[in-house]
């Protein structure tokens, strides 16, 4: 389990365990990936954006769970025409808005777009105006949280959010699910809670 020791107020960073670094550099077989629970007192958001083509119909989704892996809230919506980068940022931004609405103070944010995580953690500059708007909103909200951490996970560890982002394409209006997950992700949520391992091919994108 990832350690959250010595995290200062709203210290945003990218976590990578030594074990994962070892796997990335030396392990030649399939990589075992699983969803990890947050520590007691923390809420975890897995978020994802979906885009049809380089720039096309886009949607977002996200799942909040607690240290017992219990489903707290899920969201999905279509956001119109956007790039994949904007969709990923919009998914995180919407998740942050819901964090404020629900009063969660210690939050672990996890997505499967490594470039987005680098943008937020390392404060990298983005050139797209719409992406800039999303980043600005994210940077305004995060300091309001008591503690927060942003990490990257392979897609195999982000399956519930990925599924909700796909569902977003079908929606006419934004949807929020509280306490009980939609049927489409129920099995994934249960598997994640049990620590199911999904194997990823080493050179899979």
Structure, explained:
Helix content is 34%, strand content 27%. It has 205 residues and is of the alpha/beta class. The protein has a single domain (18-200), classed as Nucleotidyltransferase, domain 5. A six-stranded mixed β-sheet has the order 6-5-2-3-4-7. Strands 1-8 form a two-stranded antiparallel sheet. Strand 3 (55-65) and strand 4 (71-83) form a beta hairpin. The longest helix has 19 residues, at 84-102. The chain starts with 17 loop residues before the first helix and ends in a 5-residue tail after the last strand. Residues 1-9 and 13-23 have low confidence and may be disordered.
SSE blueprint and pairings:
Blueprint: H1 18-26, E1 31-33, E2 43-51, E3 55-65, E4 71-83, H2 84-102, E5 106-111, H3 114-121, H4 129-141, E6 147-152, H5 159-168, E7 175-178, H6 183-193, E8 198-200
Parallel strand pairs: 2-5, 5-6
Antiparallel strand pairs: 1-8, 2-3, 3-4, 4-7
Helix pairs in contact: 2-4, 5-6
Give the strand line-up of the largest sheet: 6-5-2-3-4-7
Which whole number gives the mean pLDDT?
Answer: 89
Beta-strand percent range: 25-35%
| CATH level-4 homologous superfamily | Ribonuclease H-like superfamily/Ribonuclease H
Largest sheet: 6 strands, mixed
Output the CATH class name. Alpha Beta
Principal-axis shape: globular
Distance between the termini: 25 Å
The helix/strand series, from N terminus to C terminus, equals: HEEEEHEHHEHEHE
Supply the number of structural domains. Answer: 1
Query: What's the CATH topology label?
Result: Nucleotidyltransferase, domain 5
- Put simply, the count of helices is 6
| Multimeric organization | single chain
Structural class: alpha/beta
GO molecular function, one term: RNA-DNA hybrid ribonuclease activity
Protein name: RNase H type-1 domain-containing protein
Pfam family, one: RVT_3
InterPro entries: RNase_H-like, RNase_H-like_dom_plant, RNaseH-like_sf, RNaseH_domain, RNaseH_sf
């Amino acid at each position: 389990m990832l350690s959250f020791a010595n995290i200062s107020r709203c210290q945003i960073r990218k976590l990578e365990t030594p074990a994962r670094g070892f796997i990335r550099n030396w392990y030649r077989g399939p990589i075992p990936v699983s969803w990890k629970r947050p520590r007691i007192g923390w809420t975890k958001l897995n978020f994802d954006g979906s885009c049809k083509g380089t720039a096309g119909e886009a949607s977002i989704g996200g799942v909040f769970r607690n240290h017992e892996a219990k489903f707290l809230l899920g969201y999905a919506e279509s956001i119109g025409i956007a790039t994949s980068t904007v969709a990923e940022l919009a998914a995180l931004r919407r998740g942050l808005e819901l964090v404020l609405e629900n009063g969660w103070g210690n939050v672990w944010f996890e997505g499967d777009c490594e470039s987005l995580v680098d943008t937020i953690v390392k404060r990298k500059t983005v050139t797209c105006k719409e992406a800039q708007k999303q980043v600005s909103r994210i940077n305004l909200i995060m300091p309001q949280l008591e503690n927060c951490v942003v990490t990257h996970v392979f897609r195999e560890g982000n399956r519930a959010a990925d599924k909700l982002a796909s569902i977003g394409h079908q929606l006419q209006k934004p949807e929020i699910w509280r306490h009980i997950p939609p049927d489409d992700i129920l099995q994934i949520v249960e598997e994640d809670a049990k620590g199911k391992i999904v194997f990823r091919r080493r050179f899979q994108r």
